[in-house]
Amino acid sequence: MARRWQTMSEERLLDLRLRDLDLRIEGSAMEERTVRLDEELAAKGLRFRPHYWVGAEWFTPDGVPGIAIPFFLLHPRLTELERRQMLEVEGQAPGECMRILRHEAGHAIDNAYRLHRRKRWRELFGSFTDPYPDFYKPRPNSRRFVQHLKGWYAQAHPAEDFAETFAVWLTPGYPWRKRYADWPALEKLEYVDELMREIADEVPPVRSRRFVEPLGELRGTFRDYYQQKHDQYSVEWPGYYDRDLRRIFHEAKPGSTRMPAAVFLRSQRMDLCQTVGEVAAVPVYTIDQLLKNMIERCRALHLRLHESPRRTREAILLMLMMHTLHVAHAGYPRIAV
User: Fold this and answer.
1) What CA–CA distance (Å, rounded) separates 113 from 109?
2) Residue 272's Cα: distance from chain center in Å?
3) Which of 27, 196, 285, 287 has the fewest CB atoms below 10 angstroms from its CB?
């Protein structure tokens, strides 16, 4: 199977097992980024370095001082497949990738030194052993948490709060004292600063180089993998949304030459998804599912444009933003990072 998958059609590739990929971090763009993370840790005077392996997702298992790198960042063919299936690629952009790596390094160093067992850690962040929620409801205006990854992810769990705080502290040249002045979150950052100075030269008590769920052990196919992701990010369309569509569009009259609403929405689909995703910090696939449902309802209701395309786009953008934020308010899915 060596490298034959590079030239496969998408349909054939989807039936390939993940374990059949011959991927290495070495020689890929991700090697440079892991080296950069190691350099950032060294610049802070830390002895600790995580180990890395190829997995299905960004992942730092409990008790393991290492980081799984998702397969879709290791080859352009797989990056393309991820984008076609999920409409975005988490960590493809260098800046976003480094933010995720710093976050994962927070989990890894916590595991390496068992930092969450410390009394002060528990006082500031909470109990590491609290169950992870399937969904969490963030408070966007809270100043008790740093803001690093999208979706106010520090609020998902005490372990994520620590990892996000560590990531902000680790970011080269970031003026965290100034940025978080007068925020309760500053106390957490100052604790991380003090704690890292304390353990900087210590040999980590946990030095396992174990790989958890490496790609070579995953028997499922790409089709299985993406079906699971689609199910995770999909949302349903409540019937009461139809009245919003009827306010923006009008039902078609016999002989009407106005553009069908479904056609208009399809033409704006990716632009709307990306715009709302950037503002709402919700996965683009989730927004696309909302918009897909809107298109299907417009077709079923025989709706057509009433206002100009510009004004219609503005109204749809506002509606889509409102309903996306409603989904977010109902609870963000906790993504494993």
Assistant:
1) 6
2) 19
3) 27
| Angstrom distance (rounded) from CA 99 to CA 164 | 9
The model's pTM: 0.83
Q: Picking from 53-62, 133-142, 263-272, which range would have the lowest pLDDT averaged per residue?
A: 133-142
d(CA 82, CA 336): 17
Q: How far apart are CA 204 and CA 199, in angstroms?
A: 9
Distance, in Å, from the CA atom of 169 to the CA atom of 152, rounded to the nearest integer, reads: 16
DSSP bridge pairs for 332 = 136
Report the candidate in 245, 333, 224, 329 with the shortest Cα–Cα distance to residue 291. Answer: 245
Distance CA 144, CA 104 (A): 21
State the helix-helix crossing angle for 158-170 and 185-199, rounded to 10 degrees. 70
Give the Cα separation of 90 and 277 in Å (integer).
Answer: 13
Measured over all CA atoms, what is the biggest interatomic distance in the chain, rounded to whole angstroms? Answer: 79
Domain ranges of the chain: 4-217, 234-333
**In which region does residue 182 sit, left (phi positive, over 0), alpha (psi from -120 to 50) or beta (all else)?**
left
Work out the mean pLDDT of the chain and round it to a whole number: 90
Give residue-wise pLDDT tens across range 43-57: 999 999 999 999 999
Q: What is the C-alpha to C-alpha distance for residues 195 and 4, in angstroms, rounded to an integer?
A: 49
What pLDDT digit, counting tens, does each position of 22-51 carry? Answer: 899 999 999 999 999 999 999 999 999 999
Query: Beta strand 135-136 with 332-333: parallel, antiparallel or unpaired?
Result: antiparallel
As a whole number, mean pLDDT of residues 216-240 equals: 84
